[in-house]
Every structure is written in C-alpha cells, then in structure tokens.
Design a protein that fits this description.
single chain, mainly alpha, elongated, Tscrpt_reg_PadR_C, Transcriptional regulator PadR, WH_DNA-bd_sf
C-alpha cells in the first residue's frame, strides 16, 4: 500500500459512521412468524441455531490459533489485531444468534404445547 493510501486509510478508520438498519432475513421472518405453522417455524429456528453454532465454533477455532500465536493480549499495532477484533465481534454476534434461536424454539414449543392442551 502506498503512503498516501495508508494516510487515507488511517483517516477513514476513525471517521464516525451512521448506524445502518439491520438486514437480517431471519429477523424479518420472526416479525411475521405469527403466520407460520409452529412446527415448521421450530424446524427453521433449529436449523438456524445449528448454522450459527457451526460458525461460532469456526470463529472460536480461529481465535484460538491467533491467541496461541500472539497471546490473549494482542498488541493493537499489529495487523493481526484487526482480524482478532473482528473475530471477537463475530463470536459475540453468533453467541447472540444461537441464544435467540433457542429462545424462539422455546417460545414456539411452549405455544404448541398450550395449543395441544387446549385441544
């Protein structure tokens, strides 16, 4: 990268950004979940939970490699720190997604149970 490119990147990296709206198809589906067959919705959210759990495991594996190489306190001046930081963001996002999918399954399962009890 050229010196002028590095200078531009150095300036850009700390420029404030606007909060962008979330674009998550699963969240949109949850918004309209009241229209769905509960058993099909449970299947969908269990599938999504597995996918998020797999991605979480992948991210955690990469983090472990980085921590093995550099230790848990990475020097923020190293290029690897950016990868380390974004992986942490990914881990937190995937943990939240797994937990939310489990919660959705629980909500849908409870509803199905109540419907069955009411006949």
């Amino acid at each position: 990268m050229t010196e002028s490119g590095l200078a531009a990147l150095r300036t850009w990296v700390t420029t404030p950004i606007e909060l962008s709206p979330p674009r998550d198809e699963l969240v949109l589906k949850a918004y309209a979940i009241w229209l769905a067959d509960p058993s099909q919705a449970i299947t969908l959210f269990r599938q999504q939970e597995k996918q998020h759990a797999a991605r979480l495991a992948e991210y955690e594996h990469i983090l472990a490699r980085i921590e093995h190489k550099h230790g848990e306190q990475l020097d923020i001046t190293l290029p690897d720190f950016g990868n380390y930081a974004t992986l942490h963001a990914g881990v937190y996002a995937e943990q939240a997604s797994v937990a939310w999918c489990r919660w959705m399954v629980e909500q849908l399962t409870n509803h199905s149970r109540q419907e069955a009890e009411q006949g």
